[in-house]
Design goal:
Elements lengths: L1 H17 L10 H6 L6 H17 L5 H4 E4 L3 E7 L2 E2 L8 E4 L5 E7 L3 E11 L5 E12 L2 H6 L4 H17 L4 H6 L1 H15 L5 E12 L2 H43 L1 H17 L11 H9 L1
Antiparallel strand pairs: 1-4, 2-3, 2-5, 6-7, 7-8
């Protein structure tokens, strides 16, 4: 709970810093929107009274125009004479509006998913790549999503494309290919901070695909093939070296016992006979060869 409170306080402090400039809402913009201090004035109350009287005179027909229903995943922002009604978003369930002075906007609170179109990005090492992704977000505060931005969905989509290009422009090609999770986390943090004033919570960002130019793909494939060939040659050389060491040790063992060579001859004869060859070579006994070896 303490960590959650710290995160909320940090976001609130950032929001206050962003809203300190001219033309911005103050730090209590949410409270000001949901609980306005100034009323609608005498003329406004007069219009509200006339609307209420009209509704009473046209009962029970007018009741169908006054009762509205919002679903579990929706919230309704009610405007009375252009001002947000005190209490903020309504719903889910039933709520009442006055037919002449009130209007409302439904806001979907479910998680929304959209694809980031492929973006041509020039990396830090001057390589052009095409990168696309997917973003998951939801409306966290329906009042801010209606009052502070014209079209929250379109604004979030455009901001996601710009953020993708800005983040990837500071990375090398190797970092883009290997550190996708870090790039996605950086994009999520940037988008979440930027859309906080709009009442939007960016839940997740994922990098879908990184497309390289064909020439670069061929160059990387050739480099990978050359690396594999080099490793294969090194492994083959190590195998030859180990085999030569084993043969040397075997020759030393055979040299210690003359009968071992004769057994090797017999084993070779058995192998040749199993292959059904028409010509069979019989090795001579070693004792017969001793005289020739001495001369």
């Amino acid at each position: 709970m303490d960590s959650d409170n710290e995160v909320v306080s940090m976001k609130e402090s950032k929001r206050r810093e962003r809203q300190s400039g001219p033309g911005r809402y103050t730090s209590y913009d949410v409270e000001a929107l949901e609980n306005p201090d100034s009323g609608i004035g005498l003329c406004g109350w007069l219009l509200v009274g006339l609307s209420l009287l009209l509704m009473l005179l046209t009962l029970p027909l007018s009741i169908w125009m006054c009762i509205k229903i919002v679903k579990e995943y929706e919230r309704a922002i009610i405007f009375r004479l252009g001002r947000i009604l005190k209490g903020g978003a309504k719903g889910p369930g039933l709520f009442f509006i006055l037919p002449c002075t009130d209007s409302f906007i439904n806001v979907d609170m479910r998680t929304i998913t959209f694809d980031i179109p492929p973006q041509e990005v020039l990396t830090k090492d001057s390589v052009t790549v095409s990168v696309d992704g997917v973003v998951y977000y939801r409306v966290q505060n329906a009042t801010l999503a209606v009052a502070n931005i014209t079209n929250a969905d379109a604004a979030t989509r455009l901001l996601a494309q710009t953020t993708l290009r800005n983040v990837l422009g500071t990375k090398n090609l190797a970092e883009i290919l290997s550190d996708r999770e870090e790039i996605a986390h950086s994009m999520q943090s940037t988008l979440d901070d930027a859309t906080d004033d709009w009442g939007i919570k960016v839940e997740r960002v994922e990098i879908k695909d990184v497309k390289l130019p064909m020439q670069l793909q061929r160059a990387m494939a050739a480099e990978a093939e050359a690396s594999r060939e080099a490793r294969a040659k090194v492994i083959a050389a190590e195998g030859e070296m180990n085999a030569s060491r084993a043969l040397k040790e075997a020759s030393l063992v055979i040299a210690e016992s003359p009968s071992a060579l004769q057994l090797r001859y017999l084993q070779t004869l058995n192998t040749i006979a199993a292959e059904k060859n028409s010509t069979i070579i019989f090795p001579l006994p070693l004792e017969m060869m001793q005289g020739f070896i001495k001369h």
